[in-house]
Amino acid sequence: xxxxxxxxxxxxxxxxxxxxxxxxxxxxxxxxxxxxxxxxxxxxxxxxxxxxxxxxxxxxxxxxxxxxxxxxxxxxxxxxxxxxxxxxxxxxxxxxxxxxxxxxxxxxxxxxxxxxxxxxxxxxxxxxxxxxxxxxxxxxxxxxxxxxxxxxxxxxxxxxxxxxxxxxxxxxxxxxxxxxxxxxxxxxxxxxxxxxxxxxxxxxxxxxxxxxxxxxxxxxxxxxxxxxxxxxxxxxxxxxxxxxxxxxxxxxxxxxxxxxxxxxxxxxxxxxxxxxxxxxx
Length: 281
Fold this sequence. Notes:
There is one protein chain. The chain contains 13 helices and no strands. 84% of the residues lie in helices and 0% in strands. Helix 2 (11-36) packs across helix 11 (197-214). By secondary structure, it is mostly helical. It has one domain: ABC transporter involved in vitamin B12 uptake, BtuC, CATH 1.10.3470. It is a multi-pass membrane protein. It is found in: Cell membrane; Membrane.
């Protein structure tokens, strides 16, 4: 017990574990909609686009959250509108917009070499460098996403499984898509300092896929995915502390371990069901 309490004596670990639990839960919740809508690639792509916005905000001496937020939201809306209004598929639109944005960031870094090291955290995460302002930003995004999901639960559910039918039945799909883009961009921005560009997509995809293996119920999937995200954030932080590993990578590996366990449980269930069917026959 003392070993578990020991890391909490350090303020950087307290801040880090709180951020990890909040970010893990947030990504787990929002990731359900992303996975079920077949948008798994957008988390990876949009995080690269926001990296470009972060570099631009640094060059222009803007606030990180303001600059990256505006850039990320614009990129998400541009992807959405390009896929809707042209013959270009969503995955192609994601590839074009996000790689161009990431290239802008890389070009600026090569031009202004004096701050290259400042973006190591953006690429790979620096959860132990979390500040009070970061926690406030993470908490604000968690509240915003939670309120939207609570008050627009049915509309989001309808739009997730059949966007065209939802529009016919009066759901304001265009407005909801824009709102979802805003939530996704905000989530990725506050997650960037914690997990880094390279690992955000995994945190958005692994918990909901794991939950999908464990249940066929949508609302249970939301709950399980959120819990898995928060729990693996906490466990991953402790593992990274005791084994001296990178925090973001350890959290993602912990989530991968949960996925493997869920995969085994799903396979076992399938085998038991097939045996029961053969027994009754």
